[in-house]
């Protein structure tokens, strides 16, 4: 495929942020080239990959996406190219073993679609509680971009204000689709936590077509297969947008591993260089550049692109690139219930207790939100049930019983930006000879205090209220796979990487929209905030290019 | 001045010609509402409103005909671009005779051969609706440019002489009021025969094959005569009414393509009384047997998963069709082709699509998907698998042929065979008519279109005898 030289905008990445930015630019009449490190595959292939997995591996979201040698993504203990791709260290290193997908369409291929907004409080941690960082603008400024995101991705959510998150904060537009109904298990859970604990379990706003077609995609067929892949495209993933982008004129090149971003004498970005699977190098020039290749690959690429003018890497005069790596440290608890609850009808995450995530306690410890996952439990209980040595009808009955009475409750925490939680370039090299990313990670005392004083005890109360056979245990902090912080946003160019529109402080034609920019994580999943920032960045790019800057 | 003079001359002539000319468009809300109902029954919007949010009746939509693209015109009361200057008589002349106000001939993509049945009273209501109930849209539409010799619109006058019967509907006193109403609706406004009756060499409907099934672009409008085997004789009238309301009868059939549009835009809005009348009449037309197998009862549940499950996606398998089904279709239609209990996702067996010898609808449903929306049946959307931007997966002609053969073998009429070439034809919008080519050859031989037309004329006279 021949690439047009000197496109208006070169975008590295084809995930949700890249796709949304690209479409805004195309709609504004700009020419766009998108570069994807990994392959472009059909949905059918991923669906069949999943179905062909042995049962024991079906819970591994990444197993249906074998990485290519030239575009490894983390695949721990797989024997595949991504086996030890992401090097982790530190007290909670194992809690930062992220999974993301280097395929055209990116990691929304296997997201659950959960779309919590931030709250006004979430964006002012420092002013309100003396911890973390404030956002450079208030919630009211982000709100219209949330609406754009909800309409672009097709997010269903409750029309009842009492059910909406954030609560008591006006929305400027309703959700484009109604919320999905609860499963039997979620109904019971909602009643139990309300009646016994006075907590409100609310509908998740989610990027999924609820009972209707939307954006020329079908309605959710309730396959409970959102992770690792929606087989029918009812859940938004960026792969569903790529055809439309091409119809609007975007050039999308896959198997193009960008390894260096080049600057010119004015320290503006001039080109990106990529390697193809034959290890041949190519150069793509443009006027404006967007790196939207996920919270790990974007800072990695900036560090790899160090040159004489930018000896610590591009956009890194502040030395903050790759620092402040964040996620939502998660404590998951398997539970065995006295009475059947039955999860599994509908999407895998369909409700949550959000109100616990706000309050003055955030001065002392991390906020957390709690949820009862809606994964169908049969695949998780089958091995244990088989080991009971039952056969025939007795086996069927036991399987049924165990499926109904098993579940998982989760506490998802916020985390503070800590410059010591840092991504660096490892000495180890991947198949193309490019450095692997290394991350040092410690969830920190703020989160540990929450687990000790707040979220851990709360989980026990919830479990008790639900009626468990024994007090649930957790294996410790695990990643939520919401990668944030590595190109952090701020007004002060000496301690942040991008400004309030995700433009690099150091290079006026380089934009880094996405999770990397988020100065605070709150507790809810990061995707719609990343996309909202993408909309904001796209607007700034169009303005800047029209002004001829 | 000249224009005015001409207009008044035409007006004067009209007065002499027709009682209609005396009537002005009525602004009586009841008449306008009746006109709106008739416009829905006639599904004017199917052609005259652009999909995806086009302004009502502003035209511009391309109708894919076997002889080329025909652009629907603006029929809003815009004086510059629409029909705002039409007198009621001119309006009637367009509907019944396919003649526009400027005297130019319409192509029979506009079903004036059916609308000729409309009564004066209904024409008046329609006229009143289009003059007073529709927003004028001052936008031009693309010119229709058909290939030579189809671009010679005057030739349509000869075609009309040969094939167009412009007598309006007359009740048959020997039949019930319901039957007569049904016949009026079927032959007139809802123009069923436009799609369901096969056409002859000159694109004229073949009267002796009324409603016996015909190809409409990529889709096949099946036999809807009351024949027990080939048609819908096994349906109850209540089922036919339900089908027209929802586009679906569980375990039998579902509407896609232009029938889905007709159900969405037109039939679901008709009164129960009218739908029953339609059923009453359709079930009384002459039954025509043209297939050996009943299309509603073929096939059974089953799968070939054991042949490829657990193997790599690109591993060789003899069950390639079953694998394509598994990756693309099974999430909704079931691993056994069983669909869902509520029928929202139809089963692959006992399905008129896989039970029909003509495999167009199977191929077209895969390539174009299905979309219909009714109050009674909800929003039904199957994504396309062609080259559309929103295709769930873009399947090749080869893959669609392999998949179709698997579906027909496992769940339908095993004898039917689908080739990649057939898929390519459906992907391109259906068979092109040989008419253009043959007319050109005819002209080159010095015989001209007229010969063909005369031939048609002779044939028609013979048939009448």
TrEMBL record, chain A:
Family per UniProt? Belongs to the GMC oxidoreductase family.
What InterPro entries does UniProt report for this protein, alphabetically?
FAD/NAD-bd_sf, GMC_OxRdtase_N, GMC_OxRtase_C, P2Ox-like
Q: What are the UniProt keywords, alphabetically?
A: FAD, Flavoprotein, Oxidoreductase
Cross-referenced Pfam families, in alphabetical order? GMC_oxred_C (PF05199), GMC_oxred_N (PF00732)
- A GO term, aspect molecular function: flavin adenine dinucleotide binding
Q: Where is this region: Disordered?
A: 66-85
Where's the Glucose-methanol-choline oxidoreductase N-terminal domain? Answer: 202-329
Q: Where is the Glucose-methanol-choline oxidoreductase C-terminal domain?
A: 417-534
Q: Which cofactor does it need?
A: FAD
- The protein's name is Choline dehydrogenase-like flavoprotein
UniProtKB/TrEMBL annotation, chain B:
Task: Enumerate the Pfam families for this protein.
Answer: Cytochrom_C, Cytochrome_CBB3
> Which spans are transmembrane here?
441-459
* Cellular component GO terms held in the UniProt record: plasma membrane
Which GO molecular function terms does the record list?
A: electron transfer activity; heme binding; iron ion binding; oxidoreductase activity, acting on CH-OH group of donors
Record protein name field: Mono/diheme cytochrome c family protein
Q: Required co-factor?
A: heme c
Where, by residue number, does heme c 2 bind?
192, 195-196
What residue range is the signal peptide? Answer: 1-23
Which superkingdom, per the lineage?
A: Bacteria
Taking every annotated instance into account, which residue ranges of this chain make up the domain Cytochrome c?
30-134, 177-286, 316-411
Cofactor, how bound (note):
Binds 3 heme c groups covalently per subunit.
Native species: Marinobacterium mangrovicola
Which residues of this UniProt protein bind heme c 1?
A: 44, 47-48
| UniProt cross-references to SUPFAM superfamilies, sorted A to Z | Cytochrome c (SSF46626)
Q: Where in or outside the cell is it found?
A: Cell membrane
């Amino acid at each position: 495929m021949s690439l047009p030289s000197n496109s208006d905008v070169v975008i590295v990445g084809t995930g949700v942020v890249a796709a949304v930015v690209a479409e805004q630019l195309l709609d504004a009449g700009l020419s766009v080239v998108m570069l994807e490190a990994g392959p472009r595959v059909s949905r059918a292939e991923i669906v069949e990959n999943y179905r062909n997995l042995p049962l024991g591996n079906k819970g591994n979201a990444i197993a249906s996406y074998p990485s290519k040698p030239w575009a490894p993504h983390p695949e721990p203990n797989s024997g595949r190219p991504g086996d030890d791709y992401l090097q982790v260290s530190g007290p909670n290193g194992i809690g930062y073993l992220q999974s993301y997908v280097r395929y055209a369409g990116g990691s929304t291929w296997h997201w659950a679609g959960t779309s919590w907004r931030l709250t006004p409080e979430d964006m002012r941690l420092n002013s309100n509680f003396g911890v973390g960082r404030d956002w450079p603008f208030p919630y009211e400024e982000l709100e219209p971009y949330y609406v754009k995101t909800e309409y672009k991705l097709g997010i269903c959510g409750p029309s009842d204000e009492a059910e909406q998150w954030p609560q008591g904060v006006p929305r400027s537009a309703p959700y484009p689709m109604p919320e999905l109904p609860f499963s039997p298990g979620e109904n019971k859970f909602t009643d139990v936590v309300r009646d016994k604990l006075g907590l409100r379990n609310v509908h998740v706003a989610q990027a999924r077509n609820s009972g209707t077609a939307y954006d020329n995609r079908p309605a959710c067929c309730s396959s409970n297969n959102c992770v690792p892949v929606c087989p029918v495209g009812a859940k938004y993933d960026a792969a569903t947008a790529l055809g439309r982008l091409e119809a609007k004129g975007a050039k999308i090149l896959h198997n193009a591993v960008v390894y260096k971003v080049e600057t010119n004498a004015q320290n503006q970005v001039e080109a990106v260089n990529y390697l193809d699977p034959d290890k041949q190098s190519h150069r793509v020039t443009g006027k404006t550049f967007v790196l939207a290749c996920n919270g790990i690959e974007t800072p990695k690429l900036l560090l790899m692109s160090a040159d004489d003018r930018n000896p610590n890497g591009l956009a890194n005069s502040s030395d903050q690139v790759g620092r402040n790596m964040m996620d939502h440290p998660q404590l998951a608890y398997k539970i065995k219930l006295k009475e059947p609850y039955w999860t599994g009808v509908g999407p895998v995450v369909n409700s949550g207790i959000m109100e616990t995530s706000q309050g003055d306690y955030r001065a002392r410890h991390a906020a957390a939100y709690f949820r009862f996952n809606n994964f169908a439990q049969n695949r998780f209980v089958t091995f244990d049930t088989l080991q009971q040595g039952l056969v025939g009808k007795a086996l069927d009955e036991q399987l049924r019983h165990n499926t109904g009475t098993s579940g998982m409750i989760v506490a998802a925490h916020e985390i503070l930006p800590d410059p010591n939680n840092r991504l660096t370039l490892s000495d180890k090299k991947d198949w193309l000879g490019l450095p692997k990313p290394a991350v040092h990670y410690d969830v920190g005392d703020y989160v540990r205090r929450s687990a000790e004083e707040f979220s851990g005890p709360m989980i026990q109360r919830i479990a008790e209220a639900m009626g468990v056979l024994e007090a649930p245990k957790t294996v410790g902090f695990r990643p939520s796979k919401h990668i944030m912080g590595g190109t952090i946003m701020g007004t002060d160019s000496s301690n942040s990487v991008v400004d309030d529109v995700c433009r690099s402080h150091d290079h006026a034609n380089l934009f880094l929209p996405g999770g990397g920019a988020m100065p605070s994580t709150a507790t809810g999943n990061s995707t719609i905030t990343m996309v909202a920032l993408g909309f904001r960045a796209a607007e700034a790019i169009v303005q800047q290019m029209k002004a001829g800057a | 001045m000249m224009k005015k003079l001409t207009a008044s001359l035409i007006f004067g002539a009209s007065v002499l010609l027709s009682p209609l000319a005396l009537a002005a468009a009525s602004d009586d809300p009841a008449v306008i509402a009746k006109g709106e109902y008739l416009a829905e029954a006639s599904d004017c919007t199917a052609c005259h409103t652009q999909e995806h949010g086009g302004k009502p009746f502003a035209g511009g939509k391309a109708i894919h005909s076997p002889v080329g693209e025909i652009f629907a015109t603006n029929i809003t009361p815009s004086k510059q671009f629409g029909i705002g200057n039409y007198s009621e008589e001119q309006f009637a002349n367009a509907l019944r005779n396919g003649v526009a106000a400027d005297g130019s001939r319409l192509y029979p993509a506009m079903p004036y051969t059916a609308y000729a049945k409309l009564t004066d009273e209904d024409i008046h209501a329609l006229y009143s609706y289009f003059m007073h109930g529709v927003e004028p849209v001052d936008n031009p539409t693309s010119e229709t440019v058909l290939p030579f010799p189809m671009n010679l619109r005057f030739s349509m006058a000869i075609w009309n002489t040969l094939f167009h019967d412009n007598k309006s509907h007359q009740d048959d006193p020997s039949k019930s009021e319901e039957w007569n109403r049904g016949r009026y609706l079927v032959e007139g406004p809802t123009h069923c025969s436009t799609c369901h009756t096969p056409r002859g060499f000159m694109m004229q409907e073949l009267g002796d094959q009324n409603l016996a099934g015909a190809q409409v672009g990529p889709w096949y409008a099946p036999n809807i005569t009351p024949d027990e085997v080939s048609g819908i004789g096994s349906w109850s009238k209540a089922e036919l009414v339900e089908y027209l309301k929802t586009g679906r009868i569980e375990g039998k059939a579902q509407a896609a393509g232009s029938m889905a549009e007709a159900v969405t835009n037109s039939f679901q809005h008709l009164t129960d009384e009218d739908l029953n009348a339609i059923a009453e009449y359709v079930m009384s037309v002459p039954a025509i047997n043209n297939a050996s197998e009943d299309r509603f009862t073929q096939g059974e549940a089953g799968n070939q998963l054991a042949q490829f499950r657990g193997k790599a996606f690109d591993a060789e398998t003899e069950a390639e069709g079953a694998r394509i089904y598994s990756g693309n279709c099974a999430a909704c239609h079931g691993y056994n082709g069983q669909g869902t209990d509520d029928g929202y996702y139809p089963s692959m067996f006992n399905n008129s699509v896989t039970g029909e010898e003509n495999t167009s609808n199977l191929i077209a449903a895969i390539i174009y998907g299905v979309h219909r929306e009714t109050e009674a049946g909800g929003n039904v959307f199957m994504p396309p698998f062609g080259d559309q931007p929103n295709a769930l997966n873009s399947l090749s002609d080869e893959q669609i042929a392999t998949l179709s053969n698997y579906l027909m073998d496992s769940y339908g009429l095993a004898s039917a065979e689908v080739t990649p070439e057939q898929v390519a034809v459906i992907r391109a919008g259906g068979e092109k008519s040989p008419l253009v080519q043959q007319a050109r050859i005819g002209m080159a031989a010095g015989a001209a279109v007229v010969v063909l037309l005369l031939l048609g004329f002779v044939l028609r006279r013979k048939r009448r005898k």
